[in-house]
Amino acid sequence: MAITGLSEFSFGFAFLFEQTNRHWPGVRAAPVLPSLRQEADDAWDARLPLHGLDYYYQFKLTDYLFNWNAKYIADRTYQDPYYRIALHARDNNRQHRRLREQCADRPHTYYESPELETLDEFNTSFLGRHLTENSRLIPLTECDDIAANDGRQHYITYQPGDPAWIQHSEPKRHEWSTTGKQLEGLYRESRAAWKPLTRPFARELFERTADKVDRQMRKETGEKTRRSAESERESLIVSTLMAPPPRDATRTDLILRTADLVSVFFGLTMVLVGEANDEDAPQA
Fold first, then answer.
1. How many domains is the chain built from?
2. Would you call 220 helix, strand, or coil by DSSP?
3. Per-residue pLDDT for 282 more than 50?
4. Does any domain span residue 219?
5. Which residue in 63, 108, 139, 256 could disulfide with 55, CB within 3.0 to 4.6 Å?
6. DSSP SS3 for 166
């Protein structure tokens, strides 16, 4: 069963709140949330890492299933309780297909879900600031593609404490995922790919993202016979965000535009991970 009273927004907010306030030695994770930032908030810009990499999260809720008649216990896929993530089946699983496109050159793209059973457990984890440790990260790079004409409901399932997981409908087992307990190590493993988070980096990131969105939109237009009013509204917003920024756009402007674009089109939250600024480093 799902955690009653919890939404994807609430889980995402709580996870990002912890990321903002977490101080691993020498490592900082800075969520990019344009809608929550004041235009002239210089302090926000100062807290961004100066050298690092971009990560992306899509927050999903889980069902915790334990009864004998739960589908994947009844068919003997599992012998014990398991968690289940439902992928968004709307428009022939369009969201998953978009995320698979996103991770092609942005490999640090993840489904992020709580590994908790009740709202009380969630609240306790949040108030105790260890929600991160009770989360599961499923890498989109390891997920299977879903065909453009496949409108079935697909799931990802996994068991507590086991890094393996299965993507359904045709079950396929994958051996690797990670938990929030391992997140610091995951961030550190990417250190070799960290770059100076300068204005040229931000401009290239925006341009690559806009180009990817443009290609995907053209592809989807060819797949559809008609467009819904919602799709038309999304296209209008995305087209506005994809407009070339001014030549003198700042690093912050470009990062915020990119974060808005991946949020609207992919449903992702961008987090910049890297070396903490001197003022953020732990004091001896």
1. 1
2. helix
3. no
4. no
5. 108
6. strand
